[in-house]
Design goal:
With 110 residues, the protein is an alpha/beta fold. The chain has five helices and five strands. It has helices at 2-5, 26-29, 35-41, 54-62, 99-109, and strands at residues 12-17, 20-21, 24-25, 45-50, 72-77. The protein is elongated.
Length: 110
């Protein structure tokens, strides 16, 4: 709220909206949606992107400079563990993969 009040248009926040937190699914703890509308309500310019798309994220990073008088937030909607079948969309990444899991993950990414 202070950033908006002060018109800090050189400030960009990035929110990784992957729907997980340390203790599990975010929505099991608290509902954050509509996340973009909440940021907008406190005076931020909101840019929502597919955070798994590097091109979309880079394009979004170029847009905030065009906003005058408001800070910007990029809400990057991501899939946790994207591209690795046994990690995608679950809490797996809370632990370090063992050597066989690491080999499997690297095989799936190549």
């Amino acid at each position: 709220m202070t950033a908006s009040h002060l018109g800090l248009d050189n400030l960009v926040a990035i929110v990784d909206r992957n729907r997980f937190q340390l203790s599990g699914r975010t929505e099991d703890v608290k509902n954050l949606e509509p996340l973009g509308e909440k940021w907008n309500a406190i005076g931020w310019e909101v840019i929502e992107v597919d955070g798994n798309s590097p091109g979309e994220v880079l394009d979004a990073l170029e847009r905030p400079g065009l906003i005058n008088g408001r800070p910007s937030v990029i809400v990057a909607r991501t899939t946790k563990g994207k591209g690795i079948s046994f990690m995608e969309g679950n809490r797996f990444s809370r632990k370090v993969p063992d050597s066989s899991e690491l080999r499997r993950a690297l095989d799936e990414l190549s």
